[in-house]
Design brief:
This protein has about 180 residues and is an alpha+beta fold. The protein folds into 2 domains: about 100 residues, N-terminal domain of the delta subunit of the F1F0-ATP synthase (Peroxidase, domain 1), CATH 1.10.520; about 70 residues, no CATH class. Helix content is about 65%, strand content about 15%. It is built from 8 helices and 4 strands. The chain has a 4-stranded mixed sheet with strand order 2-1-3-4. The longest helix has 17 residues. The N and C termini lie far apart (about 45 Å).
């Protein structure tokens, strides 16, 4: 399934880049359509039903596209998803599209957890530090976790940088146990 999602996502990335569309806008439009499918069982049922004609499914899609003002490429992409009965995979495809487009544009995603809400200045400092480490532009997602006691934990891909007090205490504990 992941290979299929990647194939669809890469196809849309190619179209977005070839047509020089705004990648962030395309991502938002795709997310809006996927959210509509997640929130509406009726919509999901219509798009997944083999009893409903492709024309009827596309007219529902066109109504949604008209409301959000989606690019024609995004509309056509979702029509292909519907026609090929891949609607159950839409969330995976949208997530993979985000990963693929970020990779093409030189972005890396960083998830940052801190014990408290960080100031704008602290966020900028962290982001510039991550950019220096990775050599890429950064898209950040911040969360608060009071259990960290202090400091931050940064996850970039599968790499975790633990600068939290809890992490330091855990490291000290392991050193004492092995000593």
């Amino acid at each position: 399934m992941a290979a299929v999602s990647s194939r669809y996502a890469r196809a849309l990335v190619e179209v977005v880049l070839e047509q020089r569309l705004d990648a962030d806008v395309a991502r938002q439009q795709l997310n809006s359509i996927a959210e509509a499918v997640r929130e509406s069982g009726d919509l999901r049922q219509v798009w997944e039903s083999p009893a409903i004609s492709a024309e009827q499914k596309r007219s529902v899609l066109d109504a949604i596209v008209g409301q959000i003002g989606a690019f024609k490429a995004v509309r056509n992409f979702v029509a292909v998803i519907i026609d090929h009965r891949r609607v159950p995979m839409l969330n995976d495809i949208v997530r993979q599209f985000g990963i693929e487009i970020d990779a093409q544009l030189g972005f890396v995603e960083a998830k940052i957890s801190s014990a408290r809400e960080l100031s704008a200045e602290e966020k900028r400092g962290l982001e510039s530090q991550i950019e220096r480490m990775t050599g890429k532009k950064v898209r950040t997602h911040y969360t608060s976790d009071p259990g960290l006691l202090g400091g931050v934990v940064v996850r970039v891909g599968s790499t975790i940088y633990d600068g939290s007090v809890r992490g330091q205490l855990e490291k000290m504990k392991q050193q004492l146990i092995t000593a």
